[in-house]
Amino acid sequence: MIKIKNLQVSIDEKDILKGIDLEIPKGEVHAIMGRNGSGKSTLANTLAGNEKFEVKNGSIHMNDVDITEMSVENRALNGIFVCFQYPVAIPGVSMAYFLRAAINAHFEHQGKEEMDAVEFLNKSKKILSELNLDDSFLKRSINDGFSGGEKKKSEILQLLALNPKFAILDETDSGLDIDALKTVANGVNKFNSKNNSTLIITHYERLLEYINPDVVHVMVDGKIKKSGDMSLAKEVEKKGYSWLLK
């Protein structure tokens, strides 16, 4: 699914990623943990195609297609989705309008007929129920006046509605209470299947306890320092990151 080879990335002429090698097969969930400034969010932005981040060397392939130079829009249409830590508010644009437009943009790209209003509402209401959100949520402007938990649930609603091939969750657990955390984790677990892949970026183990990733990586100073299973996340939670800096 996703193959990253010797990825070196800078921003404002400062080197951030210093040779990332990572493969995430279809059907797997991988997690990346690390301190602030280790390069986790830079990796998320680079995978999304953010032009502020300059790829100096290396490559990113998705399903054997080189997407290293692909635009943000084309990456999205080809199945890459990112839940960012701080989702942007868009006053005046309803969740319903945005979601249906996004779904139909993907359908058009795939040569499918657009989803009509009735089918869209039925699909959306089912997902809203799973996320413990009222149907009126669809009428609200995107992230405008949302609580922190509502913003994260909004991202998971989009994830489940669009059903991308590859999802990146960039610190989606940040600032969530335990109930919202469980709801978000349940949404991610509903998304995960043999047909897609997920990369979870986080500081802490607590979200991973509810998702149980296949592989856990620890990033230090722009490189993947260590990889393992869930026991690695528990070790980091117990010891911190200092033992990995040696």
TrEMBL record:
NCBIfam families: sufC. CDD domains: ABC_FeS_Assembly (cd03217). One of its GO terms (molecular function) is ATP binding. InterPro entries: AAA+_ATPase, ABC_transporter-like_ATP-bd, FeS-cluster_ATPase_SufC, P-loop_NTPase. PROSITE patterns: ABC_TRANSPORTER_2. SMART domains: AAA (SM00382). It holds the Pfam family ABC_tran. Residues 2-246 form the ABC transporter domain. This is ABC transporter domain-containing protein. Gene3D superfamilies: P-loop containing nucleotide triphosphate hydrolases (3.40.50.300). Keywords: ATP-binding, Nucleotide-binding.
